[in-house]
Design goal:
mainly alpha, 139 residues
Length: 139
């Protein structure tokens, strides 16, 4: 059984993995390697789903974790956190819509929404790692 105290590091690793899978998936689609693209993107979705589950479990048990930094770094942290949280709320419906159109073979709509989904999802994954590092790595 995994310890609750290890979940922030697990979550950071899951976010980093999602970012890598999204980047590789994009690379594959640019080279018209459809199957590899599909595997990467579904894996990124699965990784993000596991992340969300672990995140909710952690915060159910621990509650809010306050940033301990002061001065200018606090402003940087809050700006990153605010943009991360706002965009994170968009990732789930965007990714589900993007996947829906792919599964329906509606690739024109899939491409149109994926142009928004990918950069937002990638930003959320990368800033998730940054938030972890700022909360737990600066101590």
């Amino acid at each position: 059984m995994i310890e609750i105290s290890t979940l922030p590091a697990v979550n950071a690793a899951l976010n980093a993995t999602s970012a890598v899978l999204l980047t590789i998936g994009y690379w594959f689609i640019r080279r018209r390697q459809i199957t590899a693209h599909k595997v990467c993107m579904l894996s990124a979705f699965g990784t993000s789903t596991i992340f969300l589950t672990c995140y909710l479990i952690y915060h159910y048990h621990v509650g809010h974790v306050a940033f301990q930094g002061t001065g200018a770094i606090r402003g940087v942290y809050l700006a990153i956190l605010a943009s991360h949280v706002v965009l994170a709320f968009l990732v789930l419906p965007l990714s589900l819509t993007t996947l829906y159109h792919a599964f329906r073979n509606n690739f024109d709509r899939h491409r149109r929404i994926a142009r928004w989904t990918l950069p937002i999802w990638l930003y959320v994954s990368v800033t998730g790692v940054l938030v972890y590092w700022m909360l737990y790595g600066l101590n």
